[in-house]
């Protein structure tokens, strides 16, 4: 096996991240090549915090400039506009041992599956697929608790496309006889993407919608969850979320308190909704509390940041020490 590539990914390794124990990846022996379609925030963090997991990483980008940016990070870049599979993309599919798919689905479902399903099905190397999607597919449950056994209530064309992509990939896994894991992610925060930066930029808003709650998840815990899925060959649906859903304005108020600044005023949802995009409105239409029992009990994942206070508290110390706030 060749040495792992040096990935110059601009994501700091958090000192409090819970890394797997030695031998954790024993079941993924030979899984050396990753193809990430839509190599974004979560997968970059996985690679930065688990540099020995793959010895070759291929990522797609929609433009030549995006390909060049990936290659500057030490990733093999392949052009994929979501509409057609080039010879280079087909070769990457044939060579990959693990697929991580996070590109938004189109009308035809998952972009890669739509143009390269036959290539995926014919691959002799492919051992596992991870699909990164959203808890939004559960829809609205009036603040009630849901888990992976709860039937989805998409409620919008965008979320219906998510479910179509998920179903297509799970069915492919059954036909091919390989594990396919659909990671349904909560609202993501972490380095470079958090309430402190929004407050500093004057962009934070506290929206008051009585009874509304959201789950959240630190990107470090997503990376740990992805590593657990790969290491254990998990297949099926998996909620990746923190332990405690909370009202939408609470993290902003908590972050403002740590910074020693006044939180922005509460804005009535009815007023703000008039200026929201359809995508934002569909996000706010889903009110639910999501359980993560399967993540913790079946995969044995211990969250580094089980609440937003834990995650924001750690981020505040790191950002303060780095002079970012």
Automatic annotation (TrEMBL):
InterPro entries: NAD(P)-bd_dom_sf. Keywords: NAD. It comes from the Bacteria. This is NAD(P)-dependent oxidoreductase. It comes from Azorhizobium oxalatiphilum.
């Amino acid at each position: 096996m060749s040495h792992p590539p040096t990935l110059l990914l601009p994501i700091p390794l958090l000192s409090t991240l819970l890394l797997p124990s030695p031998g954790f990846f024993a079941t993924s022996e030979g899984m050396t090549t990753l193809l990430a379609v839509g190599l974004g925030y979560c997968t970059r963090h996985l690679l930065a915090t688990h540099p020995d997991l793959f010895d070759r990483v291929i990522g797609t980008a929609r433009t030549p400039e995006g390909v060049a940016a990936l290659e500057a990070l030490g990733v093999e870049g392949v052009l994929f506009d979501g509409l057609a599979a080039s010879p280079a993309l087909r070769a990457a599919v044939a060579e990959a041992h693990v697929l991580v798919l996070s590109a938004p689905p189109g009308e035809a479902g998952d972009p890669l599956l739509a143009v390269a399903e036959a290539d995926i099905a014919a691959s002799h190397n492919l051992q596992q697929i991870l699909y990164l999607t959203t808890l939004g597919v559960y829809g609205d449950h009036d603040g009630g608790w849901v888990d992976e056994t709860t039937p989805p209530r998409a409620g919008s064309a965008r979320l219906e496309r998510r479910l179509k992509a998920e179903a297509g990939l799970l069915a492919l896994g059954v036909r091919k006889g390989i594990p396919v894991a659909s990671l349904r992610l909560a609202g993501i925060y972490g380095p470079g993407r958090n309430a402190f930066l929004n407050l500093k930029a004057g962009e934070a808003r506290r929206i008051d919608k009585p009874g509304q709650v959201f789950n959240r998840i630190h990107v470090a815990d997503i990376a740990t969850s992805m590593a657990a899925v790969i290491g254990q060959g998990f297949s099926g649906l998996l909620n990746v979320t923190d332990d405690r859903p909370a009202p939408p304005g609470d993290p902003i108020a908590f972050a403002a308190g740590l910074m020693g600044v006044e939180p922005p005023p509460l804005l009535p949802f009815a007023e703000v909704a008039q200026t929201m995009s359809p995508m934002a409105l569909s996000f706010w239409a889903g009110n639910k509390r999501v359980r993560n029992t399967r993540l913790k009990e079946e995969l044995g994942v211990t969250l580094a940041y089980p609440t937003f206070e834990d995650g924001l508290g750690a981020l505040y110390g790191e950002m303060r020490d780095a002079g970012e706030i």
